[in-house]
Structures are given as C-alpha cells and as structure tokens.
Specification:
InterPro entries: Beta-lactam/transpept-like, Glyco_trans_51, Glycosyltr_51/Transpeptidase, Lysozyme-like_dom_sf, PBP_transglycosylase, PCN-bd_Tpept, UB2H. It is a single chain. The chain contains 23 helices and 30 strands. By secondary structure, the protein is an alpha+beta fold. Among the domains are: 40 residues; 80 residues, Penicillin-binding protein 1b domain (Penicillin-binding protein 1b fold, 2-Layer Sandwich), CATH 3.30.2060; 190 residues, Orthogonal Bundle (Penicillin binding protein transpeptidase fold); 99 residues, DD-peptidase/beta-lactamase superfamily (Beta-lactamase); 57 residues, no CATH class. The strands form ten sheets. It has a five-stranded mixed beta sheet with strand order 11-1-15-23-24, with helices on one face. A five-stranded mixed beta sheet has the order 3-4-5-8-9, with no helix packed on it.
C-alpha cells in the first residue's frame, strides 16, 4: 500500500513537472506570438474624410435654421441655460451662446471656449468671448465627418494613449470588469473558481469570470465560441501577455480595443470613440458619471446602450459608481453626486455617407496617391472643400425641382428609376475654385454615374458668353451684329441658324445678343471675329472635350462637361483668372503630420476688364433678358447668369454667379429624350431655390469694374459714341480702356434740328 502511494506520488510529481514544463514552453511560445502581434500596428484605423470648416464673422449673413442644422451635424447640443460645457449652445432672443469644442485642423489648434454672438437684421452683428468679453474677429466651426474608409472589420476607433485616459474612466472600467486587475497576473483564481462552480452547476459555459487581460486575449487572438479548449488557450495567452507587458500598457491596449456599441453598420471600439459617440466629447473631458456610463456598457453594449434604454443604462451606471466607491476609488459624496446627475447623451447619428458623388470624386484623387490598404488602416485625416450646408441645399433643390417638373408634365415621368429625369449641380467659390457642393445625379443608390464630372452634354446658349469673351479684342458690348437670316456654307453644305423666337430687330448689339440669346447674332460675331482665332483662344479655358471647328459651336453644338463649364464661368467672376477645381485640401497622418497639402492653382485666361464686360452683359440677362424670371423667386441681389437650351429641348442649363458664389444647374435625360422645357423654366428655378437657401453665402455686393474699364455714353441705335444731345436714346456702356469707340454716332451726328426733334418725339411713344 505504501509502495503504491510512493509510486503514485512519483508519477504525480513527474506529471506535474512535465505539465509545468510544457505549460511554460507553451507560454514562452505564446509570448513571441503576443509580442509579434502587439509590436506591430495593433489596429486597422479607417481614414476619415472631413468637410471644410465653417467661418463665422461680423457682417456675415446668417440663417438661423441652417446654422442650427450645422451645429447639430457637428454634434452640438442645445442647453436650457447658458452652456457650461463644450459642445453645447443656447439660442437667445438676439443671437446665440455657444461653448465651442476643441478644433484641430492642419495648421491650427484651438481649445474650446464660451462665446456669445449677436444677430441683427439677418447678419452677425458682433462676437465675443463670454468669459472675458474680448471681441472675436472670426470663429471657425469644426468640420463634419463625411466618410470613413473601412476595412473588412468596419470598426470606428480613436486611439488614445493611456496617460490621456482619465483615471475616473480607468477606475470605472476596473470596477465594472476586473477590480483586482493590479493584483493578479492575468488570471484571477477567485473569478475562475466562481465561474467553474457556475458552469458545473449548469453543465455548460455560462460565466466567464474573465479578467481584463483574458478579455484582451480573447478579442485579439481567439474566436468567440464558448468551449473549454478556447478557455484554456485564453488562460495561457493571458499569462503570456502579463509576462511580457506592464499593467498600465495592458490596460491602455484594452481600453482602445474593447467594443462599446454599434453606429449603423460600423462598430464603436475603444474608449476614445465611445466618448465621442455617446457624449460628443474627447475622452479626456468625460465626467465621472459619463465614465461610469461608458464602463457599464462593456457588460452588454446593446443591452445597456442609453440610445436604446436610458433607464437601464442609468441603473447600470449607478451600479458601476457603487462598485467604484466600494473599491475606494471615489467617495460617498462623489458617488451620490454622480448618481444624481442626469444621463444626457449626444443625438444618435448612424453612420451614413454624405455627398456620395463628391466623395467619389475625392476618392479617385486619393487612389492616385495611396492604395486602399493604406486608406483603410493608417488612420489618415483627409480634409476637403465641401460645405455641408451648401451640399444639403443643392441636393434638396435638385430633387424638388425635378419632382416639380415631373408633376407639371406627365411626359417626363418614368416608372424605371434608372430612366428617370436627371440633373447635376456644381457650386464653386469662383476665386479659389473650392468645390462647395456637387450633386452628380438624382439618386446615388440608383446610379453612381457622376454627371457633374463625366456627363458630356451640349451647353446650348451657355456657350455664347465663353466665345464672346475671346472676341472682345475685336468687339465691344455696343458693336452691332446682324440678326438677319443668313446662310453659311459648312463642309460644302448650307447651314442657316435659327433664333429661338423671331425678333424684328435686324441688328443687335453684343450686349443685346447675350441678353436675349440671339443665335443669328452670335454666329455673326464668331464668323466676323474669325473661327480659327476663336478656337485657338478657347484652348485657354481647358475644356476636357474638343470644341467643334464649326460656326455652330458658338450655339453650344459641342459637348462639354458641367464641371468644365462651371470652371469657365468662374473666369468671368474672378477678374479673368481660372481656378483649378479644388476638392482635396490636406491629408494628415494619425500624428497630425501633413502628408499632402493642395492649394489654389490658377491660370490667367482673360484680362480683368474682359471678364468684367462679360459679367456686366450677363447681369443684363437677369435684369431684362432670358434670366429675368429670377426676380419672381426673390433674387434681389446682383447676379450674372445665362440660360442654355439645346435642340429639341434635350438639355436645360442655368449658370449664375455673384462675387461670392457660382452655381451651375443641368437638367436632362441620360438617353437624350426631350424634357420639353428651357433653361429658364427647368434649371433656373432649381438655381433660385438653391441660392435662396444660402443667405449666409451671398454678401449682396455688386460687381465692380476694374481699372482697365471705362464708361462711355453710347447711342443705342448706332452703337457708337453718342453725339451729345443729338442722339435720342443714349445709355452708359462699359468699354476696355484700350478699346473705346472713336467714332461718333454717324446717324445723328449730322442730323438736322427737325430730324432730331422728330426722333425724340418718336422715342417718347416707343
């Protein structure tokens, strides 16, 4: 019996020593695996595309509903009283109180502070710090998240160093999940015994008893199934982690790894992203109560989500607070105060891609710089020119406008979504080329084809100002053009341009040609000015499509891309300078180091005077020409614009600009079916609705003539310099200083007194 016991002890010792050696070797092997996994990039961080920031300054027009929408979009919440925390605002009887969030963008870091804005007659009258009263010349609101480049995991995460995570959150997490974290070595025997008892009692894995280290091992290295083999591996990996890393580093990795909930189809991982998702705060700014709320989520992120059940989340928070007091991390007074604090969360915003056509446009540029594996893993911050308020206004205006056209004309309705009436909008800052908005189609889900950047359509009369601009070295706005029926021989065939409506005038000035959009007078100008010379000069506009070498090209017979046409009109609005359309501004890495910085690129196309002459003539189309119906939509500020309609009504255009903003609207069918409407009836109302929704972007300033432009009194009948009082119909016309009319009116300059009196009386009745 004694011999048998001795043998049993010997076998047990050998087995124990062997088991210990095997376990040690296995742990040593796992240590290398853990080190390899943790020493490299620990997480795949999706790159984020942001909109532009929003500037507020005294004198800027303000539309409160739009500003409120903007504040909501970037996560601000309305407070009942004066805001005392970052990310809150309160509208007042004469303005706004706001506690700004921190702002970090390329080249700028601003820490949040309380501010007060006063409004007067629809503008910002003043801005000042609420704490010191110091006046503020300009405020910058944070950019909005437009898109994330997700990898396969679709995880949203902000990596935060452990020394930036507040102790209140660290203690809350340990109280909720592993209060003995700093005293065990990766495995808590008490927890294991408790779990073993529970699992044996139920005959299955019902309780984990896992430490933070075990949870980390499970998330990083193991599959989620509940088996004893997986549990054994979890224990060994936990020991390996504890052997290799300090407690603080393990806690830091855990707090950046753990799952905290769901934002649409993307998971919210890490304490940094949880703080942003639930409270719209940096993790450093969390209160004790907010830290306890986040810690309480780990046990069941969906079960205890305050977005799903506020009361259940509040009770779970208070359980965590009680545990924190029990463990000596907070006092009874702190627990009571935090437990009584109302649970207030940021408004839930599921992940959704905004401005999809614009983002496709930006993404195509990014793919030229980086492969998709970089964009989905290295956590770049990508800043763009998009203004979300302008984008939303453009999307709304296009959809409403197209629906209105379909409602008014049943011929335009289509049952097949892919064959429905389409449209495109481009909105630019004309002097910088910044793309503020881009709508490439009616519904991105139905069609991803970006009509704003890829559709090739005939521009119709919208091309007339472009051609006229390159002929201003030979013509002045008052020069007369033939408006009579004329035959031209083109490639051996006779071609006779027709006007949209028959005018009685046999001659029209260049100004009136653009005002009423006369086809015959436009062709006369091109033919007299020289087709070859005009084609050569048009190259400076950088159209991506060829311009046909025929006289009909002045009528918009050649196809253009909407973005190219918008860029051409930007020349008129910016003193003859053509900006390159800018959408991508800066790319910075996760350490805020600038990788790519793109800035304004410009080409000189026209002189400032030539650009102003076109602008002045296009103002005439709005005042009493083809664009005069703008006034019916409440557009009462200076606008230069042109309508465009193609043969058989296949395309409708409207391009209009102010000194501050340029917007292009196109309407048509992809298959070139007629839309039975003109630019003035189909595209113009959409433009008007868009611009009317953006009062903060329109200063109302008039277009000012540059130094190389002078004013001369001209006889309307002859188009020449007026002969004093002899001419009955005289008006002020703009001219290039280098090209003023030398000739005095030949019609009235030598007229007799009786002739002049007769013409004067006739003029009264006409």
């Amino acid at each position: 019996m004694i011999l048998w016991i001795k043998r049993l002890i010997k076998v047990g010792l050998v087995a124990g020593i062997s088991g210990f050696l095997i376990a040690s070797l296995y742990c040593w092997h796992l240590t290398g695996r853990v080190e390899k996994r943790f020493s490299g990039r620990r997480w795949q961080i999706p790159s984020v595309i942001y909109s532009d920031t929003t500037l507020l300054y005294p004198g800027r027009n303000i539309h409160w509903p739009s500003l409120r929408e903007k504040l909501t979009g970037i996560g601000y919440r309305e407070s009942a009283g004066s805001p005392t925390k970052k990310g809150y605002y309160r509208p007042t009887s004469d303005g706004l109180e706001i506690y700004l969030n921190d702002l970090t963008v390329p080249g700028k870091i601003r820490y949040g502070f309380p501010a007060v804005l006063t409004f007067k007659r629809g503008t910002i009258a003043s801005m000042a710090r609420r704490d010191s009263g110091q006046e503020i010349p300009i405020l910058e609101l944070e950019p909005e998240v437009l898109m994330r480049y997700f990898g396969k995991e679709r995880e949203i995460r902000q990596v935060v160093p452990i020394d930036e995570i507040p102790e209140s959150l660290q203690h809350a997490v340990m109280s909720a999940e592993d209060s003995r974290f700093y005293t065990h070595h990766g495995i808590d025997p008490r927890g294991i015994l408790r779990a073993v008892y529970t699992n044996l009692k139920h005959g299955a894995i019902r309780q984990g008893g896992s430490t933070l280290t075990q949870q980390l091992a499970k998330n990083y290295f193991l599959t989620p199934e509940r088996t004893f083999t997986r549990k054994l591996n979890e224990l060994f990996i936990s020991l390996a982690i504890e052997l290799k890393y300090e407690k603080e580093e393990i806690l830091g990795i855990y707090l950046n790894e753990i799952y905290f909930g769901q934002k649409g189809s993307a998971s919210v991982n890490g304490a940094g992203e949880a703080a942003r998702f639930y409270f719209n705060k940096r993790v450093q700014d969390l209160t004790l109560a907010e830290s306890a709320t986040i810690a309480g989520l780990i046990k069941g992120p969906n079960l205890y989500s305050p977005y799903k059940n506020m009361e259940r989340s509040r009770k779970r928070r208070n359980v965590v607070l009680a545990s924190m007091q029990k463990n000596g991390w907070i006092t009874e007074e702190e627990r009571r105060a935090a437990s009584e604090e109302p649970l207030t969360v940021a408004g839930f915003q599921a992940y959704s891609q905004k401005a999809p056509y614009f983002l496709d446009y930006v993404s195509s540029q990014l793919r030229e710089l980086y492969p998709s594996t970089i964009l989905t893993s290295l956590g770049f911050s990508i800043y763009t020119t998009l203004d979300t308020q302008v984008q939303k206004a453009a999307e709304r205006a296009l959809e409403r406008g197209l629906s209105r056209l379909e409602k008014n004309n049943p011929k335009l309705r289509r049952n097949d979504p892919e064959k429905r009436l389409q449209g495109a909008i481009v909105v630019l800052q004309p002097r910088t080329g910044n793309i503020l908005a881009m709508v490439g189609g009616r519904d991105y889900r139905v069609s991803q084809f970006n009509r704003a950047t890829h559709a090739k359509r005939q521009p119709g009369s919208c091309f007339k100002p472009v051609v006229a601009s390159v002929l201003l070295d030979q013509f002045t706005p008052s020069d007369l053009l033939s408006n009579e029926k004329t035959d031209y021989v083109v490639d051996g065939k006779t071609w006779t341009p027709k006007n949209f409506s028959e005018e009685s005038e046999k001659q029209l000035s260049v100004r009136d040609m653009l005002r009423i959009s006369s086809n015959r007078a436009a062709v006369d100008m091109l033919v007299r000015g020289g087709l070859k010379e005009a084609l050569k000069k048009l190259e400076a506009f950088h159209f991506s499509t060829p311009v046909a070498p025929w006289p009909s090209m002045v009528l918009g017979a050649s196809e253009v891309v909407p973005m190219d046409l918008a860029r051409a009109y930007a020349v008129f609005a910016s003193d003859g300078i053509q900006p390159f359309p800018l959408s991508l501004k800066d790319v910075v890495d996760e350490n805020d180091e600038l990788l790519v910085g793109r800035h304004m690129q410009i080409d000189s196309v026209l002189s400032p005077g030539e650009a102003f002459l076109i602008t002045s003539m296009l103002e005439g189309t709005v005042k009493n020409g083809t664009g005069r119906s703008l006034a019916r939509y409440g557009i009462d500020f200076p606008v230069a614009a042109k309508t465009g309609t193609t043969n058989n009504y296949r395309d409708a255009w409207f391009v209009g600009y102010t000194p501050d903003l340029l917007a292009l609207v196109w309407v048509g069918f992809d298959n070139n079916n007629p839309i039975y409407a003109t630019g003035g009836t189909a595209a113009l109302p959409i433009w008007a609705e868009l611009v009317s929704a953006l009062p903060g972007y329109i200063s109302g300033n008039a277009f000012s003539p540059p130094p190389d432009v002078v004013t001369v009194k001209v006889c309307r009948e002859s188009g020449k310099r007026a002969a004093g009082l002899k001419c009955p119909d005289v008006y002020d016309e703009y001219f290039l200083e280098s090209n003023t009319p030398d000739e005095t009116c030949p019609i009235h300059g030598k007229a007799s007194l009786w002739d002049r009196m007769g013409r004067g009386v006739k003029g009264l009745f006409n």
